[in-house]
Amino acid sequence: MILTKCAVCATELGLSLGKKCGRCSTRYCGPECQVQHWKEGGHDTLCKPIKKAGGAEQYNANNKYTEAVAVAAEACADDTKGQTCFICTQAFHWKTKEGLVRGCACRGTSGFVHVSCLAEQAKILVAEAEENNLGDKAFDERFQRWHTCSLCEQQYHGVVLCALGWACWKTYLGRPEADWIPGAAMALLGSGLSSADHHEDALSVEEAILSMKQRLGASEENVLVAQSNLAVTYGELGNMEKALSIERDVYSGRLKLNGEEYPLTLQAAYNYAGSLVNLRRLKEAKSLLRRTMPVARRIFGERNEVTLRMRKAYAVALYKDDGATLDDLREAVTTLEDAERTARRVFGGAHPLVTMLESKLRCAGAALVAREVSAIREAMAAMTPSDAHDDPSS
C-alpha cells in the first residue's frame, strides 16, 4: 500500500502527518519511533538504498510493483505459454525478464503482453499529450492505456490491473499533490488492489485519496468519485452499513449534480442497489433497479458492464426474496441466463463478471427447482384420495 502509517508502530498518519527521516523520507509518528527504527529496526542499513531509489514512497512502490508483476505473470503462465508480447514481440521482457500476462477480454492469440511494455507505452503516450498540450479529451484517452487494453478496449482486471496500478503509481508519485495525475494514479492503484482482493490495502489508499481531495478543496465531482470508491471498498470488507450510508449520499449527490442519465449516476445507482441487496433490503433494491435499469440500457446499451451488473443485482434481489413467486424466480433465472451469455460474448469466460453471473445463475436455478418441487408436493398434498385414484379415461 502507499505509506500512510508509521514505519514502526503503524499509527495512521494519512498523507501529511508525522515526522520523516531527513535522508530517505521514511515516515514516523514521532522521534521515539524514528530512533527505535534506526537502532533496532535495520533502518541504519536501509536508509541509503531507500534514498538512492528516490525516497521511501518510491522505494516501496518499486518493490510492490516488482512483486505484483511476478504474481501477475505466474497467474497467467498457463494461458500465455508459447506466446509473445504484442508490443515488443518477445516471450520474456528484454530488461526485466518478466513473463507475459493477459487480463482483459482478448481471446485466441491476441492480447499477450508484458506489464512493463504496457506501462512504458502508457507513460510515453501521456508524456506526449503533456508536451504537445493535446487537450483534456486526448489526455484522458491516452491515460486510459494505463488500465484499458488497446486491442479489445476492455479494462484489465485482477492481478494484472493490480500490477498496472503499482506501475502507474510508481511513475507519477513524485509529482505535486495539486497535479491531477498523481491522484489518478493513486485511484488506479486503489482499483487494482481491490481487483486483486487486497481490500485492506485498498482501504488505506481510498481513505488517503478522499482526505487529499478534501484538503485540496477538490470539486464536488472529484469528491463524489473518491467517496464512491471508498464505499465499494467498505462493502468488499463486509462493512455494509458504512458502505450503504456513503453510497446513498453519493447517489443523491449525483442526481443533484448530474441527473439520472449521467454515466456515473448510473454507476452510483448500481453500487447503492448492491448494498441494499447485501443488507436484504430487497424491496428498496428492486424499486431502485426498476427505475434505473431502463435508463442504463438506453444510455449504455445491453453489452455494457454497468447494465449487466444492474441486471445481475435485480435478479439476485428477486430470488433472495422470501416472498418470491414462481414467476419471480423464473424471471431471475431468465435474466441471469441472458446476462451471462452477453457478458461471455463481450468479456470472455475468464472475466470476473462472467464467473459471478454463473455463480448467481446456479443459485437462482436451485431456488427455482426447490420452489417447483415444493409446489408439486403442495398440489399433491391438497388432492383428495378420490382425486388421486380417479381414472382419467372414465
UniProtKB/TrEMBL annotation:
Single Gene Ontology MF annotation: zinc ion binding
Entry keyword set: Metal-binding, Zinc, Zinc-finger
Domain MYND-type: 6-47
Annotated Pfam families: RINGv (PF12906), TPR_10 (PF13374), zf-MYND (PF01753)
Gene3D superfamilies, sorted: 6.10.140.2220, Tetratricopeptide repeat domain (1.25.40.10), Zinc/RING finger domain, C3HC4 (zinc finger) (3.30.40.10)
Alphabetical list of InterPro entries matching this protein: NLR-like, TPR-like_helical_dom_sf, Znf_MYND, Znf_RING-CH, Znf_RING/FYVE/PHD
Name the UniProt record assigns to this protein: MYND-type domain-containing protein
Annotated organism of origin: Pelagomonas calceolata
Taxonomy of the source species: Eukaryota, Sar, Stramenopiles, Ochrophyta, Pelagophyceae
